[in-house]
Amino acid sequence: MRRFEGDKLVIASHNAGKIREIRALLEPFGVEVASAADFGLDEPEETEDSFAGNARIKAHHAAKGSGLPALSDDSGITVDALDGAPGVHTADWAETGNGRDFPMAMEKVWTLLEERDAPTPRRAAFNCTLCLAWPDGHDEMFEGKVRGQVVWPMRGDQGFGFDPVFLPDGETETFGEMDPARKHAMSHRADAFRKLVHACFA
Ligand SMILES: O=P(O)(O)OP(=O)(O)OP(=O)(O)OC[C@H]1O[C@@H](n2cnc3c(O)ncnc32)[C@H](O)[C@@H]1O
Ligand SMILES: [Mg+2]
Description:
This protein is of the alpha/beta class.
């Protein structure tokens, strides 16, 4: 396991919600954090069919383009009664050709569940795979998960993406309703971060 020894890191993401969460999670470690956009890096195509595969593509692309260690996050929601969909295609389900429409994507998930008459609760998980890649091609991977259920209608305007329809197990608030600090303490991203920090930063 390679430790992170530098003082600057690039977040290999173009998602403002994720970047905000990753900055908050890295704050205690005194690492200076830049985003892919700060380096004018384009978004690589996510051509793999796994979170790990796409996390690797994004992190290596940014590490090569910036000359700095880069941290990517590939994530998504997997719904049991939809055989794991939308999964690695979570962002694609929101694609309209004219930007992303997450309310539309969340409604699509709920409509499919209703059509299938899926038993309640509609079990689901949020998954996050982090890849920390160095410009020399080395990388380290970490996986996180949080289980819960998909609820309808949407609840809350905190967070981003599918947060308003995800109710984590043991909670009364969706990720969309929760205070960001609470989400950071229990999310799929936080789970993966604990492993990253233990291995590379602690
Ligand atoms: O690839 P980058 O540039 O990092 O940004 P992205 O938005 O395209 O990210 P992904 O390819 O990993 O797609 C994952 C999608 O899953 C959703 N998602 C991931 N984590 C989430 C979270 O914590 N809360 C809500 N939705 C989340 C969100 O809609 C993302 O767009
Ligand atoms: Mg993406």
